[in-house]
């Protein structure tokens, strides 16, 4: 038979035993746990921050690419439309590293603003003069600014057409293009012009602005520019920059050194 006194005695002993129990974490153990926990949380923060910035950078580059690539494609498409007649050199003298002037036959231009510009016939076309111009904004480094496409009415007869001051069309292809920097003071030209040498396209661009003689030899135009979101009025954000380069061959067929038109444009 269990007596009440025995139960009371056992209960008191259990309470005293629990009171003397000193099990738990020591101060060094708590310090180590805090340090490890802080390191893990810091690592997670760095990882999340990097992923967020990387995603923002990728999104920005995609946005820039979607703006810049159509501009490049339009320039190349217009270069591919420059041979208005066999044997007539399309690139005009005076073209430079920031502006190209070229003959082009494009019926779409004729309908601009409902005008009545006479484009001639397919057998005897009357072209327009295209001028694609890069205009540097003051104080930008590397040089940055818009690329604008102009179409001018021509006067004269083939092959001595000249541009008038009558603008048939004008379009801004990109609001902020950038010359690709080489050093702190030099950059890649927007437009480079090449001729044939010994049956192959030269690796050295022609000097600009193009002379009358050199303009007659241009068979390839290379276009290079960089696009970026602005980091301010005069700076470019390099993290969002996209560099584009493409070339257009201004011939109907590869050069043939056995003909008297070897290496000439639009032949």
Question: What features would you describe in this structure?
Answer:
This protein is an alpha+beta fold and 267 residues long. The protein has one domain (55-249). 29% of the residues lie in helices and 25% in strands. It is built from four helices and nine strands; from the N terminus they run ααβαββββββαββ. Strands 1, 2, 3, 4, 5, 8 and 9 form a seven-stranded antiparallel β-sheet that branches. The longest helix has 53 residues, at 27-79. The radius of gyration is 35 Å and the shape is rod-shaped. The N and C termini lie far apart (123 Å). The model is unreliable at 110-116 (pLDDT under 50).
Give the fraction of residues assigned to helices: 25-40%
The helix/strand series, from N terminus to C terminus, equals HHEHEEEEEEHEE
| Cα gyration radius (Å) | 35 Å
> How many H/I helices?
4
Question: Which shape, going by the Cα principal axes?
Answer: rod-shaped
What class, by secondary structure content?
Answer: alpha+beta
Beta-strand share of residues: 15-25%
How would you summarize what this structure contains?
The protein is of the alpha+beta class and 267 residues long. It is built from four helices and nine strands; from the N terminus they run ααβαββββββαββ. β3 (144-155) and β4 (162-178) form a beta hairpin.
Annotation keywords:
267 residues; 7-stranded antiparallel beta sheet; rod-shaped; alpha+beta; 25% strand; single chain; 29% helix
Question: What topology emerges from the helices and strands here?
Answer:
Blueprint: H1 4-20, H2 27-79, E1 99-104, H3 107-110, E2 128-134, E3 144-155, E4 162-178, E5 191-194, E6 196-197, E7 200-201, H4 212-215, E8 220-227, E9 242-249
Antiparallel strand pairs: 1-2, 2-3, 3-4, 4-8, 5-8, 6-7, 8-9
């Amino acid at each position: 038979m269990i007596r009440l006194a025995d139960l009371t005695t056992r209960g008191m002993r259990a309470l005293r035993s629990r009171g003397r129990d000193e099990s738990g974490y020591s101060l060094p153990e708590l310090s180590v746990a805090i340090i490890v926990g802080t390191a893990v949380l810091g690592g997670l923060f760095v990882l999340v921050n990097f992923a967020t910035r990387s995603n923002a950078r990728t999104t920005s580059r995609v946005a820039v690419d979607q703006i810049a690539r159509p501009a490049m494609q339009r320039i190349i498409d217009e270069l591919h439309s420059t041979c208005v007649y066999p044997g007539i050199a399309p690139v005009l003298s005076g073209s430079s590293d920031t502006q190209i002037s070229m003959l082009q036959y494009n019926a779409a231009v004729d309908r601009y603003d409902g005008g009545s510009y006479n484009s001639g016939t397919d057998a005897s076309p009357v072209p327009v003069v295209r001028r694609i111009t890069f205009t540097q904004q003051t104080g930008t480094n590397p040089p940055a600014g818009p690329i604008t496409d102009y179409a001018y009415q021509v006067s004269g007869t083939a092959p001595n057409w000249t541009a008038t001051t009558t603008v048939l069309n004008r379009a801004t292809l990109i609001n902020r293009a950038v010359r690709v920097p080489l050093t702190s003071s030099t950059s890649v030209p927007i437009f480079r012009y090449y001729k044939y040498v010994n049956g192959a396209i030269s690796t050295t661009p022609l000097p600009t602005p193009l002379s009358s003689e050199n303009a007659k030899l241009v068979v390839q135009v290379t276009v290079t520019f960089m696009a970026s979101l602005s980091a301010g009025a005069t700076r470019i954000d390099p993290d969002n920059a996209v560099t584009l380069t493409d070339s257009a061959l201004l011939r109907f067929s590869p050069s043939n050194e056995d003909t008297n038109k070897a290496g000439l444009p639009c032949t």
